[in-house]
Amino acid sequence: MGREFTLTDAEGKTRSLEDFKGKALVVFFGFVQCPDVCPTSLLRASKVQELLGDDAERVQVAFITVDPERDTPEILKAYTSAFDPGFIALTGTPEQIARTAKEYKVFYQKVPTGSSYTIDHTALSYVHDTEGKLQLALRHEQTPQEVAADLRKVLSLH
């Protein structure tokens, strides 16, 4: 689980898990028009970065869209940057997104809402250590302080 992915960042650069070695990587799946879980998770991640102080430089937050139809690279960059300029957004074809979600055992599904849709999705964040190995899943209910403590433990592994 969580062994690899190949997606594209908001600058159009192909990214894989290998690119983030040396940093703890926090991966979250979501979409820009998400009304509650996504903005709450990204806000928590930005608070965690503050709590980590100097250790924040050793952590990379990556937001993977499950709505590549609406979440263009420009929209994704603006969205993640609003929470923290260091966060990155990743996208890809619907097939690449599906393959990556399957690799993390993430559920997502379109739900019609009148003339539009929303997306139900897994609300966990996944943490890789500095060697790229998946170490833990963070529950949506965890506080920034609890997440910062978990990340400090992951950073101390190597």
TrEMBL record:
Residues 1-156 form the Thioredoxin domain. InterPro entries: SCO1/SenC, Thioredoxin-like_sf, Thioredoxin_domain. Keywords: Copper. Belongs to the SCO1/2 family. This is SCO family protein. It comes from Mesopusillimonas faecipullorum.
